């Protein structure tokens, strides 16, 4: 069986399980379940702490896992990302009290508090900065107020919590992160079951990003209509009973669907419909 690590809690857990369910895999019904066997798909899921997943995968005991890019890099594990999943996106940045520093070049001799010691230590070393790093688990905003550090490095979404603590974001982002599928570095890239698993997840990503659009169009306007809905290879064109009309079917980006429908209507197309795509293989 293919052995896969899945986050057992936190912001990665729910979206990861939802994506796996959409991909046709069984998922646990209770959060206390640590292992789930899906015999129909020949997969065994292990629900682990997100921070530990890269370590387990790098050991070779598990074939692949879903975790955050930030957690993968912070772990220093011998593993690599092989597919971006598009959820749990975040930006990792430095913050401090106004007037303390303008950027990483001003950190010399200071202390940086963070929950991601590996990422920060490497970033400082890469920039030739002689600053020390102290590891804290969560709520790093209080480190400056309590005198533990002059700088913090943490995930920033809206920046509200930092502003509430009297801090400001400084310098360029350290990195951006999102959920990713990982495997042990050097593992067989053509592993058949891993490739099947990736195809399923890629199918979910495409299905979420596209809709199927159908519409009727006069033949003389067909080329202009097809230019609006080129599809992946090309649209499907079928003649209608009424002479001079054709039916067109094409995949279009979901975020562009309403604008395309307006443009098609202005072109004379009618019976314009969009339907969700639940699964696909490209």
TrEMBL record:
Assigned keywords, A-Z: Amino-acid biosynthesis, ATP-binding, Cytoplasm, Glycosyltransferase, Histidine biosynthesis, Magnesium, Metal-binding, Nucleotide-binding, Transferase
Top EC class, one word? transferase
Query: According to its UniProt record, where is this protein mainly located?
Result: cytoplasm
Name a GO molecular-function annotation. Answer: glycosyltransferase activity
Q: Which CDD domains match?
A: PBP2_HisGL1
Q: What Enzyme Commission number does this protein have? A: 2.4.2.17
Activity regulation comment: Feedback inhibited by histidine.
Which locations, inside or outside the cell, does it occupy? Cytoplasm
Q: Which cofactor does it need?
A: Mg(2+)
Q: Which residues cross the membrane?
A: none
Q: Which residues form a coiled coil?
A: none
Q: In which pathway does it act?
A: Amino-acid biosynthesis; L-histidine biosynthesis; L-histidine from 5-phospho-alpha-D-ribose 1-diphosphate: step 1/9
Q: Where is the Histidine biosynthesis HisG C-terminal domain?
A: 207-278
Catalytic activities: 1-(5-phospho-beta-D-ribosyl)-ATP + diphosphate = 5-phospho-alpha-D-ribose 1-diphosphate + ATP
Annotated ranges, domain ATP phosphoribosyltransferase catalytic? 49-203
Q: Which InterPro entries match?
A: ATP-PRT_HisG_long, ATP_PRibTrfase_cat, ATP_PRibTrfase_HisG, HisG_C, N-reg_PII-like_a/b, N-reg_PII/ATP_PRibTrfase_C
Return the PANTHER family for the record: ATP PHOSPHORIBOSYLTRANSFERASE, ATP PHOSPHORIBOSYLTRANSFERASE ATP-PRTASE
- What does it do? Catalyzes the condensation of ATP and 5-phosphoribose 1-diphosphate to form N'-(5'-phosphoribosyl)-ATP (PR-ATP). Has a crucial role in the pathway because the rate of histidine biosynthesis seems to be controlled primarily by regulation of HisG enzymatic activity.
What family does the database annotate? Answer: Belongs to the ATP phosphoribosyltransferase family. Long subfamily.
Q: What name does UniProt use for this protein?
A: ATP phosphoribosyltransferase
State the organism of origin.
Streptomyces sanyensis
């Amino acid at each position: 069986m293919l052995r896969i690590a899945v986050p057992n809690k936190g912001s990665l857990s729910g979206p990861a399980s939802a994506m796996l369910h959409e991909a046709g895999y069984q998922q646990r019904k209770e959060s206390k379940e640590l292992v789930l066997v899906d015999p129909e798909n020949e997969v065994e899921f292990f629900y682990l702490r997100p921070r530990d997943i890269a370590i387990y995968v790098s050991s070779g005991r598990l074939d692949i896992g879903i975790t955050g890019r930030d957690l993968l890099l912070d772990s220093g594990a011998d593993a690599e990302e092989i597919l971006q999943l598009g959820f749990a996106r975040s930006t990792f940045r430095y913050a401090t009290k106004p007037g303390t520093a303008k950027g990483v070049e001003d950190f010399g001799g200071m202390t940086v508090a963070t929950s991601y010691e590996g990422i920060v230590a490497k970033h400082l070393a890469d920039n030739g900065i002689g600053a020390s790093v102290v590891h804290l688990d969560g709520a790093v905003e209080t480190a400056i107020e309590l005198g533990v550090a002059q700088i913090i490095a943490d995930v920033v979404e809206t920046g509200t919590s930092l502003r509430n603590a009297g801090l400001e974001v400084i310098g360029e982002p350290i990195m951006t992160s999102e959920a990713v599928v990982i495997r042990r570095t050097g593992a067989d890239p053509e592993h058949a079951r891993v490739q099947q698993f990736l195809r399923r997840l890629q199918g979910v990503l495409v299905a979420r990003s596209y809709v199927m659009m159908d519409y009727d169009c006069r033949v003389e306007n067909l080329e202009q209509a097809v230019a609006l809905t080129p599809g992946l290879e090309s649209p499907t064109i079928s003649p209608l009973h009424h002479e001079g009309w054709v039916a067109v079917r094409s995949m279009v980006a979901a975020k562009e669907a309403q604008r395309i429908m307006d443009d098609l209507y202005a072109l004379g197309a009618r019976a314009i419909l969009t339907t969700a795509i639940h699964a696909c293989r490209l």
